[in-house]
Each structure stands twice: as structure tokens, then as C-alpha cells.
Design a protein that fits this description.
With 299 residues, this protein is α+β, with helices and mostly antiparallel strands. It is 51% helix and 28% strand. It contains 3 helices and 10 strands; from the N terminus they run H-H-E-E-E-E-E-E-E-E-E-H-E. The strands form 2 sheets. It has a 6-stranded antiparallel sheet, with helices on one face. Strands 3-4-5-6 form a 4-stranded antiparallel sheet. Strand 8 and strand 9 form a beta hairpin.
Length: 299
């Protein structure tokens, strides 16, 4: 005997509409749930981006602050260096002014001594003439001896006047000048003492662990084994206060600083390049007695 399957009851129109409504509601609920999740994801992403933007802004502000602090520090350091340089320049100017005043005082003293020598020479000559007028006429055998002494005194007076009237004028060298003759010396300049060398007032200076040399009011920094060159110069030697020209020499001078000595001297090599061979009597013009020196074979 075979079992029969009973057919499912047929759905009515109302059942179909009801079922469709339930399906529609379920789909709507699912869609709303998906929208809610998408909204939550969107908010989370926006929050994450906002946090990253906040961190980036904080980093930017921190970096900007750091750069501003570095810039302010650099400006402060530049101002400090500028103040130090201005103070150093002021100190150098002060020393240069002192050197100029001292030079002017020395020139005034030299002029005074020159005038005094002239006056004394004149008085001596007048005294001798008066003495001759008061004396009786000497015997014939003594006449030659007295004339000799008179001539000797006159020559001495002329020699004194010649020495006192000797001047050296310093001017710029000719543009076409050449310097085929070299004279080399080792020299020791007394540190801090002004000397007359090569027609200039020169002073070896030691300031702030640095060596310098002032030449005619211009200061040069000295570095060991480096050469300092003085501008080419023309020296004109005259007598009788410029009335008689004896010699003109065009030359240039190079110094090579070596080191300082324990007894307060700056040891240097000195090269004098000239347009003619220098006579011995001119060496004292280039190197005064205050500067120790000896001939050198190399520079």
C-alpha cells in the first residue's frame, strides 16, 4: 500500500502579500544595518585622519619652533661676533692713534733738536770769530797752525750741519721700476717698540696671541713662514734740508715672520729688492740700530 503525499496548501493572495512585506522589511533592516556599519567605518576613518592631521600639525609646529629657535640663536651669535669685531677694531684704532701721536711728538722733538743744533753751531762760529778779533796778530810761524784749526772747526761745523740736514723723502715707486738687486737679512724687531726702518715708522705688536706689524700706520697680520710685502717705494736722500739730492733708490721690502724670542723680539727674514746696489751707509736707513740684524743667505 503506497503512502500519498499531501500537497502543501496553496498560498492565498494575502499570504503572498504578507510574505513579501516581511521579506521587504528584512531587506530594509539589513540595508539599514549595512548603512549603520558604513557610517561607523566612515566616522572611524575620519577620526583616524583627524588624529593624524593633529599629529602632523603638532610636528609641524614643533619643527617650526625649533627652526625659529635656531634662527634666533644664529642671529644672537652673529651679533656677538659683530660686537667683538667692533671692539677689536676700536682697540686697534686706539693703538694706531697713540702711535700717530707718538710719531708726531718725536718729529716735533727732532725738529726742535735740529733748530737747537743750528743755533749752537751759529753761536760757536760767532764765538770763534769774536775770539779771533780779540787776539793779537800771531807770529808768522804760528799763522799756518791757526789757519788749520780754523778750517778744521769750519769743517766740523759743516759736517754737523750736513748730518743734521740729511733727510730721506719717501714717495711711491715709479710704475716702470725694476728691482734686480736683492739684499737679505735676518732681523729681530723689539716687540712693542717703534723704530724707523725703510723710511717708515714700524712697530712689531703682540695682541690676543696674534703677531702684527704696523708699517706707516697700516697694520699687517704676521703668520709664521708667510710673506708680508710692503708697497714699492722710492727713497730720495738729500742734504741741506732738501737743497742737494745725493741719491734716489727705488725698492720694495718683503718680511717673512718666523717666531718670537724669549727676550721679547720678533724674529723675521727681510728681503730688500732695489733698482741699484745698496751702499753700506744706506743700511742704517733700512735697518736701524734698535733692530738686531745679520746678513742672510736665504729668504
Amino acid at each position: 500500500m503506497t503512502d500519498e503525499i499531501s500537497p502543501s496548501p496553496e498560498l492565498t493572495d494575502d499570504d503572498i502579500l504578507k510574505r513579501a512585506e516581511e521579506i521587504k522589511k528584512a531587506q530594509e533592516a539589513k540595508r539599514l544595518e549595512e548603512l549603520k556599519k558604513a557610517e561607523e567605518i566612515k566616522k572611524a576613518e575620519e577620526a583616524r585622519k583627524a588624529e593624524e592631521a593633529k599629529k602632523a600639525e603638532a610636528q609641524r609646529l614643533a619643527k617650526q619652533k625649533e627652526e625659529e629657535e635656531k634662527k634666533a640663536e644664529a642671529v644672537k651669535e652673529a651679533e656677538r661676533i659683530k660686537r667683538e669685531e667692533e671692539a677689536k677694531k676700536a682697540e686697534e684704532l686706539k693703538k694706531a692713534q697713540a702711535l700717530v701721536r707718538e710719531d708726531e711728538a718725536k718729529k716735533a722733538e727732532e725738529a726742535r733738536k735740529e733748530e737747537e743744533a743750528k743755533r749752537l753751531a751759529k753761536l760757536e762760529a760767532e764765538k770763534e770769530l769774536k775770539a779771533q778779533e780779540k787776539e793779537e796778530k800771531p807770529k808768522k810761524k804760528h799763522g799756518g797752525l791757526k789757519a788749520f784749526f780754523i778750517i778744521l772747526i769750519i769743517l766740523i761745523i759743516l759736517a754737523v750741519i750736513t748730518v743734521l740736514s740729511a733727510t730721506v723723502t719717501i714717495t711711491s715707486s715709479d710704475a716702470t721700476a725694476s728691482y734686480p738687486y736683492d739684499t737679505k737679512y735676518e732681523v729681530w724687531f723689539p716687540i712693542g717698540q717703534e723704530v724707523n726702518a725703510c723710511g717708515y715708522k714700524m712697530t712689531a705688536l703682540s695682541m690676543n696671541n696674534e703677531m702684527m706689524i704696523s708699517v706707516g700706520g697700516v697694520t699687517y697680520k704676521l703668520v709664521s713662514n708667510e710673506i708680508v710685502s710692503i708697497n714699492p717705494t722710492k727713497a730720495t736722500l738729500t742734504l741741506f734740508w732738501g737743497k742737494l739730492t745725493v741719491m734716489t733708490v727705488q725698492f720694495k721690502v718683503d718680511f717673512k715672520y718666523i717666531s718670537n724670542t724669549s727676550d721679547g723680539y720678533a724674529y723675521m727674514k727681510m728681503l730688500i729688492s732695489s733698482d741699484k746696489q745698496l751702499p753700506e751707509f744706506l743700511i742704517n736707513f733700512f735697518i736701524p740700530k734698535e733692530v738686531k740684524h745679520q746678513p742672510a743667505t736665504t729668504f
